[in-house]
Write a structure and sequence with these properties.
236 residues; alpha/beta; Rossmann fold; six-stranded mixed sheet; four-stranded antiparallel sheet; 10 strands; 36% helix; P-loop_NTPase
C-alpha cells in the first residue's frame, strides 16, 4: 500500500465560529485518486479550502508527507506542493490562456518550459487557444485551462473541486479522461465530485461527507453495492 501524501487527522474547521467540518479523518495516498462525495452544502468545498489554508482549522492537524501544514499561509502551502483547482476555475478573463497558465507557476518557475510543454501535450486544445483570452473560451476549455494552471504549479497533490460542474456530458467525459490520465501517470489527486457513479470505477478510495463528517469510506465498487447509501446521501 502506498504511503500517505496528505493526511487529515481529526480536523475541524468552519467560518466565523460556525463549525462546518467536524473531526475529519482521511488520507490521500501517493499516486492515487481519492474522491470526496456527498450532498451539496455538506462541507466538501470547505474541506479543500481548509487544506489550502483558506479556511482556518480550529482543531486537529493536516499533514503533507508527515509535516503539518495547517498552520501555514495559503501561499506557503502552495509552495509545499498542495494545489487547488477551485470550483468554477476563477480564471483571469482578460488574460490569454498562456498568461493564465503562467500565473499558475508564480510560486515556482523552475522548469517552466517543460511544464508548459507537459500541459500543452496533455491538453492540446489549450495550445490551440494559447493566445485567446480566457473570457472567450467555452465552458470545457475554461475548465481545462483551470486544470492546466494548477498543473503549472508543479505540486505534489492536485485538488479538484467538482470539475464536471455545469458542463455538457461529452465535455465531462473529456475532462475526466484528462484526470484519469493524470492518475495513471502517478499524480496524487484529491477530487470532490457530487456524482459517485462518475468516479466509482477509477477512484482508489472514496469518502462520503455528510453534515461535515465522514459517513462512509471504501472502494467505488463497495459504494455502488450499497444502494441504501447512494440513494440516501447522493440521490441516485
Amino acid at each position: 500500500m502506498a504511503e500517505a501524501a496528505l493526511e487529515i487527522v481529526d480536523a475541524s474547521a468552519g467560518y466565523s465560529g460556525r463549525i462546518v467540518l467536524d473531526a475529519i479523518k482521511l488520507s490521500a495516498r501517493k499516486g492515487e485518486l481519492t474522491a470526496i462525495v456527498g450532498p451539496n452544502g455538506h462541507g466538501k468545498s470547505t474541506l479543500l479550502k481548509a487544506i489550502s489554508g483558506l479556511v482556518p482549522v480550529t482543531s486537529g492537524e493536516i499533514r503533507l508527507d508527515g509535516s503539518r501544514i495547517d498552520r501555514l499561509r495559503p501561499d506557503q502551502i502552495v509552495e509545499r506542493g498542495v494545489i487547488q483547482v477551485p470550483q468554477g476555475d476563477l480564471l483571469f478573463p482578460a488574460m490569454t490562456v498562456h498568461e493564465n497558465l503562467l500565473m499558475g507557476a508564480y510560486a515556482n518557475s523552475d522548469g517552466l518550459a517543460e511544464r508548459i510543454d507537459f500541459v500543452f501535450a496533455l491538453l492540446p486544445k489549450l495550445k490551440e487557444r494559447r493566445n485567446q483570452t480566457a473570457g472567450t473560451l467555452s465552458g470545457g476549455e475554461r475548465r481545462m485551462c483551470g486544470i492546466g494552471r494548477g498543473l503549472m504549479a508543479g505540486g505534489e497533490v492536485l485538488m479538484l473541486d467538482e470539475p464536471s460542474l455545469g458542463l455538457a456530458p461529452i465535455v465531462i467525459e473529456q475532462i475526466y479522461e484528462v484526470i484519469f490520465n493524470l492518475r495513471r501517470e502517478g499524480r496524487t489527486i484529491l477530487l470532490v465530485e457530487e456524482n459517485a457513479e462518475r468516479i466509482a470505477e477509477h477512484a482508489d478510495m472514496i469518502h462520503l461527507l455528510d453534515n461535515g463528517r465522514i459517513a462512509w469510506s471504501g472502494l467505488g465498487a463497495e459504494l455502488m453495492a450499497r444502494p441504501e447509501i447512494v440513494e440516501t446521501y447522493l440521490g441516485v
